[in-house]
Amino acid sequence: MRVLLCLLKPCLLGLCLLASNAQAASVEWPQWERFKNALISDDGRVIDASDERMITTSEGQSYALFFALVANDQDTFERLLAWTQDNLAESDLGVRLPAWLWGYDEDEDRWGVLDGNSASDADLWIAYALLEAGSLWQRRDYQVLGTRMARLIAEQEVTDLTGFGPMLLPGNRGFADPPRWRVNPSYMPPQLLSRLSALGAPWPEVAENLPDLLKDTAPQGLAPDWAAWHAGEGWQVDPVHGAEGDYDAIRVYLWLGMLAEDAAGREALLVHFAPMALLTKRLGAPPESIDAQSGEHENLGNASFSAALLPFLADTPFLEEQRQRLLDNLPAQDAYYAQVLTLFGLGWDQGRYRFANDGTLQPEWSSP
Length: 368
What we know:
47% of the residues lie in helices and 14% in strands. It is an alpha+beta fold. The strands form 5 sheets. The chain has a 4-stranded antiparallel beta sheet with strand order 6-7-8-9, with no helix packed on it. It has a 3-stranded antiparallel beta sheet with strand order 1-2-3. Helix 2 packs antiparallel against helix 14 (336-349), helix 3 runs antiparallel to helix 4 and helix 7 packs antiparallel against helix 8.
């Protein structure tokens, strides 16, 4: 037996090295390469050229971190993280939530932060990407930073809505005016809140309250971009943006479609929001804008809206039409937001990643 083990050791070592090398190499993902080549600078900045100030948002950095993790692209992840910390968070995401907007200030003729307020959707995705990168790549420094950031989000962006419970606000400032608070349903992917729940309060309560928020702010099964909670009166139409649902709200269906099949509350949420699937089938494409209260809609969304709905339509006979619409009309390389929706939706449709019922990430490259 001892001789046999000695003979096997070189083979076993070779297999381990092969597995290690496979994990170290980034996976082939043409859509991610297009995004990197067109939108990410050499120093790790995601550039949205649709704005003449050549802006970068914390949202863009957060999404790119997630896609780099899905692609097992550790080098790009490190560059994105370094740029985000150095330019948006005063060099430490565990102490300062990132500013949401950076770019060229023509009045002052300088590059830098244009708006220092935080954006909680980006903050969630960055913390999540750090926690999962720490686990998948065995990087304790990422796990520690992700945990510190999650605590900071809890301290600065979670508040108790009187009569409803703990909930994540869209940012650190400007959304709380008791007895009214404003929220953005698309800022809170259920998977991410489930993952953060493992860190303890307040995340389990926020995650538990989210399904009620999603359903109650969408009485017709159609998500709004924004909504407001008024103590003693309940959920109301947002006083600033009204009941419109378009470029923010499309992400609500995206997140719900990507829930694990055995995730708590998934079926009830998919049933509640089924009107969007039926409307998409009737129109031939997702509507660009919807009144979440009346159900009235205008125009058709571009092909990236179809991409966003691919996970949502996965168990319906409506999937193939939207998949083909996307493949026939892939977004331009420099179309930042359209590229983001396409990476999320098409990447999931191609099986490049999944979320477990506890919110943990399951990238294709980590599978046995």
